[in-house]
Amino acid sequence: MRQMTSLVLAAGVLCLGASAGAAVLNSADFTLRFGSTVKNSGNTWTQTENPGNSPTTIGDFTFSPAPSSRAQSGTGPKFVGGVLTDGAPVADGDVDIVGSLSDPFSSLAFTVPITASYNGAAPIDAAPTPNYRVILEITNISIYAAAESPGQSLAWDDQTAGHAQSSSPVNLLKVDSSNRNLAANYTLLAWDPSDYEQSVGSLNDSVTRTFGFPFAPGENTGKEGDGITVSGKVHLVYDTNQVPEPASLGLLGLGAALMIRRRSH
């Protein structure tokens, strides 16, 4: 949200000082949830428990998270309808299990890439050189996590090249085979990261942000989790040749001044 406010202000300054400004097309809200439901050697994360997820394409915009990692254990909680609840106390097949969050030796080490794009036609007010950019806005990325050893913590990393940032860590509870299925033993790690523009070569090109967890080389701490939620929006930003009316310029300048004044108090 802070980044989006800055974008509007920057666009306003551009309009005041030049013959062209910036315009933004906004998507609807997206929310997709994933549970650890597959116990074999492949990717454990699916939408099976959450049929009410947003479609990955709404209107002219696509927002597509694709978490991956192997399964950690044959028991774990459920994540039906986006709510973490107790799972079966004994292994029950490919249903109530947890995913690995910290196995650097696996070919499916934990990662959450999120891809977004604008799929529509060129805006009618775009400049001859529109300088298209996409903001993949993440309003929430979260997971329920635990650890097999005491004293562990976990924090999200934005691993997108050139945009490194991290969430505050949360402390994790220790679990084992006797209580791994109990939802109360999993701590929610939720984050609203800062957002930013990413340039695209052409109008309908996609951008990707990648999230994961920081681990030292060779570290395997037995961290595990279930219940991933990713929410956000997609914004197409482009330059326009439209020149605001004089009255609009005055209002825009007043609005910018008020924003600056409010921030100073």
How does the major sheet shape up? 9 strands, antiparallel
SSE order, one letter for each helix or strand: HEEEEEEEEEEEEEEEEEEEH
Beta fraction: 35-45%
Distance between the termini: 19 Å
Cα gyration radius (Å): 22 Å
Count of domains? 1
- Tally of DSSP β-strands: 19
H/I helix tally: 2
Mean pLDDT, all residues: 84
Name the assembly state. Answer: single chain
The helix/strand class is mainly beta
Which ranges are low-confidence, i.e. pLDDT below 50, for 5 or more consecutive residues? Answer: 1-19, 247-265
Fraction of helical residues: 10-25%
Q: Which term fits the overall shape? A: elongated
How does the SSE layout of this entry go?
Elements lengths: L1 H16 L3 E6 L3 E7 L8 E2 L10 E2 L2 E5 L5 E3 L4 E3 L2 E3 L12 E3 L11 E7 L14 E15 L5 E2 L2 E2 L6 E2 L3 E2 L15 E5 L5 E3 L6 E7 L10 E18 L5 H19 L1
Helix pairs in contact: 1-2
Report on this model:
The protein is mainly β and 265 residues long. It has one domain. 13% of the residues lie in helices and 37% in strands. The chain is built from two helices and 19 strands. Strands 1, 2, 3, 6, 9, 11, 16, 17 and 19 form a nine-stranded antiparallel sheet that branches. Strands 4-5-10-18-13-14 form a six-stranded antiparallel sheet, with no helix packed on it. The chain has a two-stranded antiparallel sheet with strand order 7-8. The protein is elongated.
Features of this protein?
about 260 residues, 19 strands, mainly beta, nine-stranded antiparallel beta sheet, six-stranded antiparallel beta sheet, disordered N terminus
In short:
This protein has 265 residues and is mostly beta strands. 13% of the residues lie in helices and 37% in strands.
